[in-house]
Write a structure and sequence with these properties.
Layout lengths: L4 H15 L6 H8 L6 H13 L11
Helix pairs in contact: 1-3
């Protein structure tokens, strides 16, 4: 079953909450959620929206 952007946003926030205060990379989040090729665009949109909302920036490890 393909997840939509809203479901992915919720799952991303769950992972970030579970890993506080340790930063996590997008690659680790993608692997933890087992994002498929079909979900990739929705995943990117979800991350962009969460970043614009100011919810993820401090929790992401930027390489």
């Amino acid at each position: 079953m393909m997840r939509n952007k809203e479901k992915l946003k919720a799952k991303i926030m769950e992972i970030l909450e579970d890993n506080k205060p340790t930063p996590i990379t997008l690659k680790e989040i993608k692997e933890a959620l087992k994002v498929t090729d079909k979900e990739w665009e929705s995943f990117k949109e979800a991350v962009i929206e969460l970043t614009k909302e100011g919810k993820v920036r401090m929790h992401l490890e930027i390489p």
